[in-house]
Structure formats: C-alpha cells, structure tokens
Amino acid sequence: MAPRQFSTVLAVLSISAAAIALAGCAPEPERSPQTDTGDSPAPTASREPSADGSGAPESAASEFDTSAHSLDDPASIWVVTNKTRPLQPIDFAPDDLVMPAGVENEFAQPLREPAARAVESLVAAAASAGIDVRIISAYRDYATQVALYDGYVSRDGADAADTYSARPGHSEHQTGLVVDFDDHGECYLAGCFGDTPAGVWLAEHAAEHGFIVRYPDGKQDVTGFMPEPWHFRYVGTELAAEMRESGVTTLEEFFGLPSAPGYVP
User: Fold this and answer.
1) What CA dihedral angle connects 248, 134, 37 and 158, to 10 degrees?
2) Pick from 62, 55, 81: which is nearest to 70 by CA?
3) Do 131 and 183 touch, CB atoms closer than 8 A?
C-alpha cells in the first residue's frame, strides 16, 4: 500500500513518525502503493461455472445456506462492502472491538471479538509451523479512513488512489473483520508477500481459522482492488471452507453479486 514517508497523513492522525500506511486494505506504515449493510437474505451461489465460462458461480451448493448471515448489515460477519456497496450507515463502528492477545500488533489496532480470537489461533498455528507473522493493520474508523484517503488523493490523484485505497465508508478495515499481516521481511504491503513462506502458509491455512484472501490475484475487475496477499478477511470457518472447496475466491462471485471495478458516480 502506501509509503512510510507520508508524513502529512501521519501528522493528521497524530500517530508517531513511524506511522500509518494504507490502502484499500492497507495498514499503517507506508511505502509506495503496490497493490492496496440491513438484514436482507443472501442470494444463492453455486460451484458450477457460469454459462459464459468465466468460472463465476451462478448459485452455491444446495447444502450450504447462503442466507445464514446478512450481506448488508455492517455488523454481519458476511457483510460485503466494495466500491458499489458502501457500509450503511457509512460511519459504522463495531461495538465489540477487542485487542488480539499474544500477537505482535504494530499499531495496536483492535478487531471485532470473533476476528480477534481467530487471529490468535491463526498466528499461533503459524508459529507452530515456524512462521512468524505480525499484525500491521486491523480496525480503522471512518474518520481515519477520511484522512488517509484524502492524503492519497492529494499526493497521487483520485484515479490512482482508488486503485489501492478505499474511499471512506467503503473500507473493509472499518468493519473490524480485516487484518493485514507482515513477516518482518522485505515485502511489507507488497505483492511479493504472497510468494514468501509466510504469505504462502497463510493463504493455505487461513480458511481453517475463518479467513479468506479478500483481494486475490486476477480478480481486480471483480473486487475493484489490486491483489493484496497480506489482506485477510474474517468470514467464519464455514464460509471460508466452502469457498476453498468450491474454488470461488471472491465474495462477489460466491454470492452472485455484481462486480465492483469502480465507484458509482
């Protein structure tokens, strides 16, 4: 996502000089950007490829209840927010934020309670496998996203900023269900993180703890964001396992939602 040298945003947020790095998913420290809601029932999704051969599901396996959680309620663990689906209300803030215990957390950011517990188990499992990872970004509130996004627009222009930073009210980080990981290596918020031992292990085992890679490679036209192999979204173990088994890698495709390559004017 963004570079560490972005002093303007850091000052706005009153965070130390090491500060906030950011993107559609990005965390706090910065480098040059590389790649960074109601109770309506969910539509049915399927493992079968679409009629046009794109591979996108048309409806989900009959045994999997796609209406178990809302896709619109911002408090739902399945809420889908993207460039065409802002959170409602746009300044939504979770009421169950807690700090993950026993996990290095660069900016001491909380997560919603179920996501925090899942991160603890995921990081512990990674450590048992010899993989050392830390949190570099978790929950960000609406006001923080306003400052970050506006800073990127001032620096790079709106068109560029929209490819790696979510507009306020559209950021998954605002749900409290997203964590960005790092391994203390050279691929901090960079696409190469997906090729590191940590990135590979996390991608292979995240579903066991209820997480998916939210912005996978090759799906920018669906999700609206560049690949972010460090950005993991908590959806619960049932949905994460179903998506892994079906081979459907985006929430938009799994639930039969429209692609969101750009914001609605």
Assistant:
1) -90
2) 81
3) yes
pLDDT along the chain (265 residues), means of 10: 38 36 42 36 42 44 86 98 98 98 98 98 98 98 96 96 94 98 97 98 98 98 96 98 98 98 90
Catalytic residue among 28, 172, 228, 242: 228
In order of 11, 164, 263, the CA distances from 223 in angstroms are 31, 11, 11
The alpha-helical segments, DSSP class H, found in 67-141 are 113-128
Q: pTM of the predicted model, to two decimals?
A: 0.80
- Give the phi and the psi of residue 136 in degrees, each rounded to 5: -115, -10
3-state helix vs strand vs coil in the chain, percent to 5: 30, 10, 60
List helix spans (H) across 6-141. 7-13, 113-128
Rounded distance between C-alpha atoms, residue 56 and residue 95, angstroms: 34
Instruction: Identify whether the C-beta of residue 31 lies closer than 8 Å to the C-beta of residue 194.
Output: no
The answer to whether the CB of 76 falls within 8 A of the CB of 92 is no
Q: Find out whether 12 and 155 touch, Cβ atoms under 8 Å.
A: no
Distance from C-alpha of 6 to C-alpha of 15, rounded to nearest angstrom: 12
User: Would you call 242 a catalytic residue per the annotation?
Assistant: no
Q: How far is CA 83 from the centre of its chain?
A: 13
